[in-house]
Amino acid sequence: MVRFENSLEFAKRKDREDVLSDIRERFSIQENVIYMDGNSLGLCSKDAKEALFHVIDLWEKHGIGIWDVEDSKYFLYQKVLGEKLAQLINAEADEVTVMTNTTINIHQGISTFYKPTPERYKILVDDLNFPTDRYAVDSQVRLKGYDPRDAVKVIPSPDGNLISEDAIIEGMTDDVALILLPSVLYRSAQLLDMERITAEAHKRGIIIGWDLCHSIGAIPHDFKKINPDFAVWCNYKYMSAGPGAIASFYINKKHFGMEPGLAGWHGNNKETQFKLLNDFDHELNAHGWQTGTQPLFSMAPLEGVLKIYHEVGMEKIRAKSLDITAYLMNLVDERLVKYGYSIGNPREDHKRGGHVCLVHEEAYRICKALKKHGVIPDYREPNVIRLAPVALYVSYENVYRLVEILEEIAINKEYENYSNTRTLVV
Ligand SMILES: Cc1ncc(COP(=O)(O)O)c(C=O)c1O
């Protein structure tokens, strides 16, 4: 059976049949723009904007009283949001909190769990994760007096694109204390089997943390099954909570009694926080890992957009994401391979995330040409065009038109009009 057809009529029919098509209107989509970069920064929604303006209004009206209005909702905002986010990953309500950024939350997780001994002192990572994770790991190892060249065990990718789960598991030797891995690789969109890898780590008594930056909001996770020790993620990509939105931190309830590696007054038990005692009495749940005052303006848009996520449900989002990315790959195979384009992500549904990794030796200059055509892609070194047809706001017609533009750019060698000199933010 032919699943997809190579025609505009087919794309339009898919859009008419799309159960998420009404949700699109809630997002701010500029006219004549095809936005394929929701895996870097998700689009603004009416819901996110309203929630932010509501908090600004409250500040304007109440000044410091903002902490008390609506039954202290904003003093406890991290709990309100943590509970809503927990539903997306099937975690307990109090296992998730929101705070700072992903990088700091990695530091928080590692500084809590990394207790090296002379026998077990290594942190295992892969060599394709986003560099900030590695910077955090290396600096945590140094803080404990070790040399990252010895104490950070890097599982190399055989091809610079994908990582082998078997190699990760083989790397779990007796000297490994902790593992930090991405759920989905930021370049190749490879989705790792988190349940299998976590179970293997635990069999060997190794603590494991996951970076969900490229899966949260695109893929449903079942943390009751995966059962990791901790996890972190940002909310500005698929979650569309805004540039620099507050990030998330998950800690398994079995660890609630541990002392936070980085402690602060907002991690104190709420009943005694304002007694301002010198002895830290941390909350025995994820919120105990809070540090300073929560930034309400980076939190409010998340509350707004979470309404959309709860209305739609992660299952429908994943179903459309898998279908629309398969559609894009099918069009690439039919129309673009002959012009030097290829697919760099795994093809199997259970092994890929929410974006398509399109490879071309002229990827950088093609991205420049795409922008001229109103397409917002995302380039990653050395030859990857990342294309994220985000389920909530990208249409099949957008994808069809995108492929036509990629074809035009290649046929007319339009990329030759652009320089290969990298700009500050690529
Ligand atoms: C896998 C991964 N982790 C962490 C980050 C950075 O997170 P933050 O800027 O919130 O520290 C990114 C950013 O793209 C990422 O892709």
UniProtKB/TrEMBL annotation:
Q: Which GO terms describe its molecular function?
A: kynureninase activity; pyridoxal phosphate binding
> Know the name of this protein?
Kynureninase
GO cellular component, alphabetical, reads: cytoplasm
Source organism of the structure: Neobacillus vireti LMG 21834
Which residues bind pyridoxal 5'-phosphate per the record? 102-103, 130-133, 211, 214, 236, 265, 293
Q: Which domain of life is it from?
A: Bacteria
Q: In which pathway does it act?
A: Cofactor biosynthesis; NAD(+) biosynthesis; quinolinate from L-kynurenine: step 2/3; Amino-acid degradation; L-kynurenine degradation; L-alanine and anthranilate from L-kynurenine: step 1/1
Keyword check for S-adenosyl-L-methionine, yes or no: no
Enzymatic class: hydrolase
| Any one GO biological process | quinolinate biosynthetic process
For this protein, the record's InterPro entries field holds: Kynureninase, PyrdxlP-dep_Trfase, PyrdxlP-dep_Trfase_major, PyrdxlP-dep_Trfase_small
Name the reaction it catalyses: L-kynurenine + H2O = anthranilate + L-alanine + H(+); 3-hydroxy-L-kynurenine + H2O = 3-hydroxyanthranilate + L-alanine + H(+)
Positions of post-translational N6-(pyridoxal phosphate)lysine modification: 237
Assembly state and interactors? Homodimer.
* The protein's role, per its UniProt record: Catalyzes the cleavage of L-kynurenine (L-Kyn) and L-3-hydroxykynurenine (L-3OHKyn) into anthranilic acid (AA) and 3-hydroxyanthranilic acid (3-OHAA), respectively.
Q: Name one Pfam family in it.
A: KYNU_C
- What EC numbers are recorded for this enzyme? 3.7.1.3
For activity, the cofactor(s) needed are: pyridoxal 5'-phosphate
The record's comment on protein family reads: Belongs to the kynureninase family.
What keywords were assigned to this record? Hydrolase, Pyridine nucleotide biosynthesis, Pyridoxal phosphate
